[in-house]
Write a structure and sequence with these properties.
Elements (H helix, E strand, L loop, with lengths): L1 H24 L14 E7 L3 H12 L6 E8 L5 H11 L3 E6 L9 H11 L4 E6 L2 E3 L4 H6 L8 E3 L2 E3 L5 H22 L11 E4 H6 L15 H7 L5 E3 L7 E3 L5 H12 L7 H27 L3 H24 L9 H21 L7
Parallel strand pairs: 1-2, 1-4, 2-3, 6-9, 7-10
Antiparallel strand pairs: 4-8, 5-10, 6-8
Helix pairs in contact: 1-6, 1-10, 1-11, 2-3, 6-12, 9-12, 10-12
Length: about 375
């Protein structure tokens, strides 16, 4: 009987998180009141991204926005990245190029390259994306920038991944969906903790006031989530999740490449504020315990009550995450939500174990 009580408590903790997530899932996106759109600097840091730049620069150039510049940062590339940038800059005066050479003190640091790009920017409003990202519409900049007003100095956007056939693609999109659900939900409850560099905005004034990335410059990743974790508050942070504001990237195509990417990303989490580490860790532990105790209680106890508890938990999951998946254009993932969750939990555990042995040291 004690085992059943423990299982019920774990499910209760799980459902409390789903209640938190419902703050985003059942929210209605409200556009800000029509106002003057402030000029913006779009900043993209690229390392060996020649092909992606050829594809995506035209999409950035065609944004329906009255006044913007594009800062292209060549981060010590050894392919044709710089040549591609220069070919577009020759024809478009709004493009500025920052050519970064390897610096002995900051070798391979994306944060160092981004800092140089931010210094090059003319405007205080900064929008960040990656070289492999395509905006979902010509109104992307307009949607994001319209949320930078008065006290709002940070805007968290949704960086989605394109849909392709295959198990890996769906798993990547599910992980991205759950990450977005969490950081949007926490922000909506006044406790923002991260954003994604594929779709993020903040002001240069905020950047300089907090000494940029200096507090975590030595960490290979985290130019997005660690900076947001450091400076975001309930008052200065806004969220933007209208469909026109999404960006779409091509996901990793091999398990090994995605695994290495996740190893790099996860290393930043230990540098979050303690309250965020605790809340995120508790959610992950409750997920693991749910799956372990589901199996144990079904094997050792009368199956009827555990089945009811499991069914209740899955029902809450389908309602809350299913609603969020529809909102973020990922509803094809909904039918197999428990399967994606179980697979992701297993892989994340594997990554944690792997990172304890060796950690990535470069962003690319």
């Amino acid at each position: 009987m004690v085992l059943l009580y423990i299982f019920a408590f774990v499910v209760l903790v799980n459902c409390m998180y789903y209640f938190l997530f419902s703050k985003f899932s059942f929210s209605h996106y409200q556009k800000t009141k029509k106002q003057e759109l402030l000029p913006v600097s779009l900043i993209i840091c690229a390392k060996n991204e020649a092909e992606n730049l050829r594809t995506h620069i035209p999409f950035w150039l065609e944004q329906d926005f009255p006044d913007f510049e594009i800062i292209l940062i060549n981060d010590a590339s050894f392919d044709d990245t710089l040549e591609v940038m220069e070919s577009f800059a020759e024809k478009n005066s709004c493009i500025k190029i920052v050519d970064v050479e390897n610096n002995e003190a900051f070798w391979g640091s994306k944060k160092y390259a981004l800092t140089l790009g931010i210094k090059k920017a003319t405007h205080q409003q900064l929008i960040f994306t990656d070289a492999d990202c395509m905006p979902s519409s010509k109104n992307w900049l307009k949607e994001m920038v319209s949320n930078l007003y008065e006290e709002k100095k940070i805007v968290l956007g949704f960086g989605a991944y394109q849909k392709f056939p295959g198990l890996l693609n769906r798993l990547i999109r599910f992980e991205t969906l759950m990450t977005a659900v969490q950081y949007f939900s926490y922000a909506k409850t006044g406790n923002p903790y991260m954003g994604v560099g594929r779709n993020l905005a903040y002001t240069s004034k905020l950047f300089y006031a907090n000494n940029g990335f200096m507090s975590h410059m030595e960490i290979p990743s985290g130019d997005d989530d660690l900076f947001v974790n450091q400076v975001a508050t309930k008052d200065n942070t806004a969220v933007c999740y209208s469909e026109d504001s999404f960006t779409y990237s091509v996901p990793k195509k091999t398990w090994s490449a995605w695994f290495l990417q996740k190893k790099r990303h996860i290393t930043t989490a230990k540098h979050y504020q303690y309250k965020h580490k605790f809340l995120l860790g508790l959610y992950y532990v409750s997920e693991i315990l749910f799956w372990v105790l589901s199996l144990v209680t079904l094997l050792l106890l009368d199956w009827k009550i555990p089945v009811i508890i499991i069914a209740f938990r899955f029902l809450i999951q389908y309602i809350v995450i299913g609603k969020a998946a529809k909102k973020l254009n990922q509803k094809d993932l909904t039918p197999l939500l428990p399967f994606w969750e179980l697979l992701l939990v297993f892989i994340q555990l594997t990554i944690f174990i792997s990172n304890s042995a060796s950690k990535p040291t470069k962003w690319k």
